[in-house]
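Need residues for this backbone.
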């Protein structure tokens, strides 16, 4: 039977009991409002581990001023049902006070990888992500943790953090889950009205266009990104934040496709900022 707990103490007690029985533990960190993308992470964790913990926490620290912290969608009842259906054993759903007590003043901050792509338009974002994920790792002490390729820079940043700080946790990256028409699933898709939802298809269309160019052997990054930008610009409701090809590990921009790379885009559809991407090694 799946449990939902709100305190660090309860998580620790449960995980301690599992570990004393020799069971392995997978962690799926989320901000809730769970959909099939999250479900695929839970499925993979349940396949690899004896027990799976899902954290469900809208982390205030990773939102900048003027971002959507207050309006971010929340639905704990739905989350509990979906997580249970997919085999989750424990949901950790803390209040912000439980995670950030008075006087909280320690941060995990990363340079280089966080200075490109989303880090440029969201300067405090990855400090919040690294700090909360470090805390979750210390609280749950999982054997493995699962992250979606949907947030490709986040996945690279977490892998790098685990390596830099010698965290003894295996990081598993999981494929992007899409709607049947191609749009990458996201909790933020709920912000889109009917017209915006249609317009949002330019993201996946441009990603598929970029993938095709790579498949056909194009090596000039500017040719690929220009073609993708042109496609996005044809949609009046879309405004490009970035369309870039970067080294898969360092997140630094490249000009020639001579190494494993990430092609990542961020596009505003009306007021909603959406992201999508592909790794060249998956093409
Ligand atoms: P979030 O709740 O948006 O912070 O996402 C929690 C985790 O689910 C992150 O590792 C995301 O990359 C992953 N995720 C979100 N959407 C998708 C998707 N469409 N496909 C695969 N993974 C996803």
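Answer:
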């Amino acid at each position: 039977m799946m449990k939902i707990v709100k305190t660090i103490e309860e998580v620790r007690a449960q995980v301690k009991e599992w570990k004393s029985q020799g069971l392995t533990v997978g962690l799926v960190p989320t901000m809730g409002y769970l959909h099939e993308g999250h479900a695929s992470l839970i499925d993979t964790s349940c396949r690899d581990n004896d027990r799976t913990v899902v954290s469900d926490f809208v982390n205030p620290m990773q939102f900048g001023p003027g971002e959507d912290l207050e309006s971010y969608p929340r639905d704990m009842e739905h989350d509990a049902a979906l997580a249970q259906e997919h085999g989750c054993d424990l949901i950790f759903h803390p209040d912000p006070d439980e995670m950030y007590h008075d006087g909280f003043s320690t941060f995990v901050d990363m340079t280089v990888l966080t200075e490109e792509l989303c880090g440029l338009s969201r300067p405090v974002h990855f400090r919040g992500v690294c700090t909360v994920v470090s805390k979750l790792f210390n609280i749950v002490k999982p054997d493995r943790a699962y992250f979606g390729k949907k947030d490709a820079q986040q996945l690279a940043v977490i892998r790098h953090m685990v390596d830099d700080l010698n965290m003894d946790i295996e990081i598993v990256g999981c494929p992007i889950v899409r709607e049947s028409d191609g749009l990458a699933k996201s909790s933020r898709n709920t912000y889109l009205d009917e017209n915006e939802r249609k317009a949002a298809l330019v993201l996946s269309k441009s990603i598929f266009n970029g993938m095709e160019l790579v498949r056909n052997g194009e090596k000039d990054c500017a040719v690929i990104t220009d073609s993708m930008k042109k496609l996005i610009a044809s949609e009046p409701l879309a405004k490009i934040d970035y369309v870039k090809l970067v080294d898969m590990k360092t997140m630094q921009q490249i000009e020639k496709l001579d190494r494993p790379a990430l092609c990542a885009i961020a596009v505003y559809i009306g007021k909603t900022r959406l992201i999508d991407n592909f790794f060249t090694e998956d093409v």
